[in-house]
Design brief:
298 residues; alpha/beta
Length: 298
C-alpha cells in the first residue's frame, strides 16, 4: 500500500509536472510568436516608409523572407501537365512608371533649342539653294544671250540711242564721245577713227578715216600689245577686199584675231558671209548692226 501510494503520487506529480511544463512551453511559444509577428509588422512598416532594405542576415530579413506572402507564379509545363510555360512578369508597372516620369524643364529647353537649330539649318540650306539657282539662272541667261546675235546701235550722238541698248561710238575724232554720253546704255564698243588708239575696240576704215594699210598697222600694234584680244575692223563692203589683202600680210596668229564689221545697209537684218557683224540699217539718229554671237568677247 505504501509503495502503491508512493507510485501513484509520483505518477500524479509527473503528470502535473509535465502539464506545467507544457503550459509554460505553450505560454512561452505563444508569447514568442506574438512578439515576432508584432516586431515583423513594425519592421515591415518601417521598411515601406523608408524604402530601406535590412542588412543581409538580420533577424528581420530572415523572418521576412520566410513569412512574407509571395505572388504565385504560373505553373510550368512539368508542374501543370498542360504544356504551358510560365508567364513572364507583367511590364505594365514599369511602363506606367516610365510614362509617369516627370518632364524636366532642361529637357524641354534642349528640345526647343534643337528644333530652332534645325529650322535655322533648313533656312540656311534654302537660302544657299536659292542663291545657287539664281547664279545658274543668270549664267543660263548670259549663255543664251551669247549664243544669239546681238544688236548694236551706233551714232555720232550717243544720247539718241535707246537706254539699255549696246552702243558703238567714237573714242576720238570730231565726234569723240565721253563715258557720260553712254551712261545708262548696255555694252559699249569704242571706235578709233585714225589708227592712233590701239586701246579702242574697233577701227573705222573709210574715206577720211583710216586706210587699208593703216588698218594692218593698227591690227599689228594692237595684237602685239595684247595677243589675246580681238581687233575689229569696220569698213564698207566695197572696200573690204583691199582691207583683207593688207591684213593678210600679217602673221596667221594675228589674222585669226581679226573680226570684220561690214557696212551693207539693205534694210534687212543680216550678217554678210565671212563677217562677224553687219551694219544693215542707216537711220537719222543712229545706225543698227547685227553681230554674231561672241562679237563682244574682246
Amino acid at each position: 500500500a505504501r509503495r502503491a501510494t508512493t507510485k501513484r503520487s509520483r505518477w500524479t506529480m509527473g503528470v502535473a509536472a509535465a502539464a506545467a511544463v507544457g503550459a509554460i512551453a505553450a505560454t512561452a511559444g505563444t508569447a514568442s510568436w506574438g512578439n515576432a509577428a508584432t516586431s515583423l509588422a513594425a519592421d515591415d512598416h518601417a521598411v515601406a516608409a523608408s524604402q530601406h532594405t535590412p542588412a543581409s542576415g538580420s533577424h528581420l530579413e530572415l523572418t521576412s523572407r520566410n513569412l512574407a506572402p509571395k505572388p504565385a507564379a504560373p505553373l510550368s509545363a512539368s508542374a501543370s501537365g498542360h504544356g504551358a510555360t510560365a508567364a513572364k512578369p507583367a511590364t505594365a508597372p514599369k511602363q506606367a512608371a516610365k510614362a509617369a516620369t516627370p518632364v524636366v524643364a532642361s529637357d524641354v529647353a534642349t528640345r526647343r533649342h534643337a528644333a530652332a537649330a534645325h529650322e535655322a539649318a533648313l533656312r540656311h540650306t534654302a537660302a544657299v539653294h536659292h542663291a545657287a539657282a539664281a547664279k545658274q539662272h543668270a549664267a543660263a541667261a548670259r549663255a543664251k544671250q551669247a549664243a544669239e546675235p546681238a544688236t548694236i546701235y551706233d551714232s555720232v550722238t550717243p544720247g539718241s540711242i535707246p537706254a539699255g541698248k549696246s552702243v558703238a561710238t567714237y573714242s576720238d575724232g570730231p565726234f569723240q564721245a565721253s563715258t557720260g554720253d553712254v551712261a545708262g546704255r548696255g555694252k559699249v564698243l569704242w571706235i578709233d577713227t585714225d589708227g592712233s588708239n590701239t586701246g579702242a575696240d574697233a577701227l573705222d576704215v573709210e574715206p577720211g578715216d583710216a586706210t587699208p594699210a593703216g588698218a594692218a598697222a593698227w591690227v599689228k600694234a594692237k595684237l602685239a600689245k595684247d595677243p589675246n584680244s580681238d581687233a575689229i575692223v569696220y569698213t564698207f563692203r566695197a572696200a573690204w577686199p583691199k582691207v583683207i589683202a593688207k591684213i593678210g600680210e600679217l602673221p596667221q596668229s594675228m589674222q585669226s584675231h581679226v573680226k570684220y564689221w561690214i557696212a551693207d545697209p539693205n534694210g534687212t537684218p543680216h550678217i554678210v558671209p565671212g563677217a562677224a557683224a553687219t551694219q544693215w540699217y542707216w537711220g537719222k539718229n543712229y545706225d543698227i548692226t547685227m553681230a554674231a554671237p561672241g562679237f563682244f568677247t574682246s
